[in-house]
User: Fold this.
Amino acid sequence: MKSVPQPPKLLLRFFRWFCHPHLLKYVEGDLLELFDDNVKKRGVGTAKWLFMWDVVKLLRPSLIRSFRGTYGVNHYGSIKQSLKISIRSFQRNKVYSLLNIGGLAIGISSCVLIMLWVQHELSYDSFHDRADRIYRISCNSEDFHTSVSPPALAKAMPSSFSSIQSTLRLRAYLSSGLYEVESKRFKEEKVLTADSNFFNFFSYSIIQGSRDKALDSPDKVAISKSTANKYFGKTDVIGESIRKDDEDEFIISAVFDDIPRNSHLSFDIVQPMSFRQAKASFDYNSNWSEFAFRTYVLIDQQFNFSTDEVHRMKEGLKSLYLSHEPGFEVHFNIEPIESIHLHSDLQFDTDVGGNILYVHTLISVAIFLLLIACINYMNLSTAQSVQRSKEVGLRKVIGASRTQIIRHFFIESLFYAGVSSFLAVGIIYLVLPFFNSMLDMSLILDLTESKTVLFFVAVTLFVGFLSGSYPAMSLSKSSPGQNFQKSLKTSKSRFNLRNALVIVQFVISIFLVAANFIVSDQLSLLQNKSLGFDKNNLLYTKINGRLADRREAVKNGLNANLVTSKYTFTSDIPINTAQANHGLDWEGKDPEFQAVIANMGVDENFLEVFKVQLAAGETFRGEEKSDKRIYMINESAAKIMGFTTENAVGKWLDLHGKGRIIGVIKDFHFKSLHMAIEPLVLIYYPTGNYVVFRSNQGELEQTLESIESVMSDIDPAHQFEYGFLDEDLDRLYKSEKQISMIFRLFALLSICISCLGIFGLMTFMIVNLSKEIGIRKVLGATRLGLARLLSQDFVLLLGISLLLSSPVTFFILDDWLQEFAYRITISIEHFLYALVFSVVLIASTISFQLYNACNMNPVDLLRDE
Assistant:
């Protein structure tokens, strides 16, 4: 038997609940008849959508009729009347009302601020038209996980996989150079090298020029809008020339809009891959050993890229690579481009700092803050149960049903939530500039967007219904007689629901405060841990342009200056080592053993300038020729090669040429402390692209002036730019710093919201116990005794909260600390700090009230009306 289509049951149930029974006989029948007609004419799916619209149209007039003509209870059921009563209640109880609205407004504004940050984090790369079909190929071998791949891979993939529509290659690292237009010269650090289909593959906005022809020849270049304005003062610059490093001339073929902040790629200039290919020593299309490129693939729209297909492609990529490089086994991963920012933690990646764990954590914090604010409302509303129970009892006597009373309390809580949301908008606009500067972001609250308005409506409804649920149910369930009896007695139990809600507040607040101390201590460890070299007073500059061909003159100039004589040439900055090789061979190596080892070119001054300690052997002397193969290795490299620190010296090593190991250095950190120290090979390379200087304490300005003087004497047109190594190290932990600041801010706000509730509860407690306080004072109670009487419940609740929050905090934060190779140990001190901090704030909140209560005249307290 064929089933008869039914309208949405939940919506129909809500409709029946909200309308008076007398109305249903002529409203519901029409509604269901309309639904049946739409099923016949338009189908079940469309009929259900139209049913929702019909409910909206029918509900408004039915509510008006029901509220104004059917209840006969002084219009108690009408929304208008309920709002009037809510406003009058607000005016009668201004203190409690302001505390409620203040707590809810802070909670809502905090939640929205966090969600703006979360929305930004989740939006990375979603602006590309085909973002759901773009993937990046990454690689891993043993413990080496990297975002780069060999250049030949991209060209070989389309013929091997029918699901791939197109591929794209990018050089792994942004290059830099001195760019010049007439008399304007600037050092550009964000120069991207890409295949000619770059702008067709991605959806970056083109302001001027053609997507197809932007990078179709080696002498073309695309620049950003801000770069065009910097050099030319305008964006209409197609066909203009721009010179790089005084030797390469480019024609500007396209101008693109500045790259959004939520892009995992960040660049100001794009140069064609064919330009780099012309200068390279190997053919990009046939090289399978140089892991120095990023490979992206676009999956065909008609193809179902399922989990099984992803697995098959991974295995196919592995086989494809082994067919060209049989001596090295590599595993390939396929990452959706939209997940790179939050889910990718790879070496040599372009995007660092994003972490899905932080997103989940802060979403939880936002929910916690809303929950604390709602609990405040519940507690303060039920704390007034003596007055409200009389009101409820009177309404029941004159005929109000429980449903009407519940509805009234919900309307009242929605009124408070609506006012709080309105205030929250103002708070957000006031604090958003500070929030952005604190996080170095540009978040905006756009109330013209439908998503933003819907989010505010959803939060308001959530807060209104949640905060009003307990007062509505608890105050409406008793009979009129019980309601009047409640005015004569109050609960003496320490473990009622109100105290349970206070415990929940304290648990959340202590968790946030303790988490803040733990995160801060972990950051302090990252910033202060010994790195194996002295990071202080180290600055660096890049040698390019005319200076690149005059390194000897640069060295002579630096040596002649006492202020700048402490320097070293390196191929990379140690914390940003960009080179790693898998084809190493060494004396006694197991043929089956595979390893990818980082390497860096340095000169004879490296150990002295960086203050890295020599463990065995000797350092480079500077007398060797640059083409002579000699190496130094760190202790970790010696360990994986099977050597001890002492016997590694003198062994042969083959890295782009066979040579011998002349020394072993102690391990030092050349990457983030998220990772353990890895093997490293130092190659004697006296003509590196970077010069690192160690300035004397207090002589930074003289050092900078002297370096600039030496550079300008050799090349008057050279633009001297520099960086500090300790600042670069700090940037590695940008996301952790942001999380720490967010935790600190919202932990403080959570305590403040809780304190607002405690202030209200303490005020109400003193009013309720005023006669008891008066009697105790007459009988000789001391101020200290009275203070202990009034505060002992809060102390007990705080102690219970500490016991409950400690294990939760430990397990959550311990899981977060697993992300670091070097981490602190969570100790009892972190929880004691949180407890002391909470106690101080709570004591500050109630101390003034306690002082007034203990100093009131007993005669005034015992006087009856």
DSSP finds 27 helices and 24 strands in the chain. The longest strand covers residues 184-194. The two ends are 74 Å apart (CA to CA).
